[in-house]
Amino acid sequence: MTALKTCATRSERAPEMREMTDKDDSSKGAARPETKVVHLGRDPFDHHGFVNPPVYRGSTVLYKTLDAIKSRKQPYTYGRRATPTTRALEDAITDLEGGAVTILTSSGLGAVSTAMLAFVSAGDHILITDSAYQPGRAFADRMLKRLGVETTYYDPLAGADIAKLFRPNTRLVLVESPGSQTFEMQDIPAIAAAARARDIWVLADNTWATPLFCKPLALGADVSIQAATKYIVGHADAMLGAVTANARAARLLDHAKEALGTCPGSEETYLGLRGLRTLDVRLERHQKSALAVAEWLSSRPEVDRVLYPALPSDPGHTIWKRDYTGASGLFTAVLKPVSEQALAAFLDGLTLFGMGYSWGGYESLVIPFDPTSYRTATKWTGPGPALRFHIGLEAVEDLIRDLDAGFARLKAA
Questions:
Q1: Is 80 among the catalytic positions?
Q2: What separation, in Å, do the N-terminal and C-terminal C-alpha atoms of the chain show?
Q3: Where is region (Disordered) located (predicted)?
Q4: Which CATH class is domain 280-412?
Q5: Which pTM value belongs to this model?
């Protein structure tokens, strides 16, 4: 069976390489996503029949002739720009996202910052959802502010009303749906339509859903961002980011990659390719287990509410059902008032839930958080502590037993 290939191209790719890729793409259109993640970005018979592409480590790429070095008519020119390893993952993600080009970065934050830098100039104004990933906010508040870019944070539930915040110099809107930690669902089509009418770029953080469960570009966004550290890598063992642009945004993104010198490590890219192969089956398990645990937590007397768009009780469920085909393993449970001592008793004694940042790996995690210190456009209200859970691949019965014992300790404390 011939492996599926993608039609993604990079500006530095030689014309003959682009033509060959386009020809080889004729059979991929009918494939379902679960098939694509297995086959995209690899061709075993380009590598002596080995099913996985090798790890290419290197900076220097040799040219055979003077004409070749002058014209750069070869698919690879320098290790920072691309290797067969990085291009394999770029092309696979481009196809899954339905974009024109993907660049890889060394982290999810690198993906967010590179994407924003690609579209702004001094004197610009940008809009960022108040529920955005906090390190992304810090980049805007510190670095972009120093560069003369002004940021306004907006209510994630604004929808089409975001147009009221547009200024003559508004350059981009950054959406994150669902919101980081607090899980507000944003109306991406409404925001994108309002922005497109004013020629404003829309960037969407798609880490929670991955391109298997949501395609922001199809919803109207110009750019889809992923912290590939999470579900793409999937094993909590590598840092990686990805930014995919549509055709009209591709050149600016490519220019940013070249100007900033962004590139991922060879080993990390390979781990991203490895993780991609099982993305569909892992997400299916994460979703099924997360829904079961979220429903169980919703029934607990100690819990005020669970924020998980896949739950019919969630305020964003209607948008999630309209625009998404699935949900991942990340959600928040807001507890009723409880002392710090009781919360420590609950968390410290958990045996299957680690306390640590990041998510998307095979293991279950939990962290307490309080967004009141950095939310500016909206106000966070919770009667008690908020806990962000990532439900891993363990048996649901074991996870619930661990949490049940934790609530017993909480009550005793």
A1: yes
A2: 61
A3: 1-33
A4: alpha beta
A5: 0.90
Asked about 63 being catalytic, the answer comes back as no
The span from the CA of 204 to the CA of 95, in Å, is 17
Indicate the domain borders of the chain: 15-277, 280-412
Nearest Cα neighbor of 188 from 179, 199, 177, 197 is 177
Asked if residue 206 lies in contact with residue 328, where contact means CB atoms within 8 angstroms, the answer is no
The matching CATH number, chosen from 3.20.20.70, 3.40.50.360, 3.40.640.10, 3.10.180.10, for 15-277 is 3.40.640.10
Check if 133 is active-site.
Answer: yes
Helix-, strand-, coil-residue percentages of the chain, each rounded to 5: 40, 15, 45
Q: Indicate the residue type of 200.
A: I
Show pLDDT as tens, one digit a residue, over the chain (413 residues): 333 333 333 334 333 333 333 334 434 456 898 999 998 888 888 888 888 889 999 999 999 999 999 998 889 999 999 999 999 999 999 999 999 999 999 999 999 999 999 999 999 999 999 999 999 999 999 999 999 999 999 999 999 999 999 999 999 999 999 999 999 999 999 999 999 999 999 999 999 999 999 999 999 999 999 999 999 999 999 999 999 999 999 999 999 999 999 999 999 999 999 999 999 999 999 999 999 999 999 999 999 999 999 999 999 999 999 999 999 999 999 999 999 999 999 999 999 999 999 999 999 999 999 999 999 999 999 999 999 999 999 999 999 999 999 999 999 99
Active-site residue identified among 10, 87, 230, 388: 230
Catalytic residue among 56, 133, 153, 270: 133
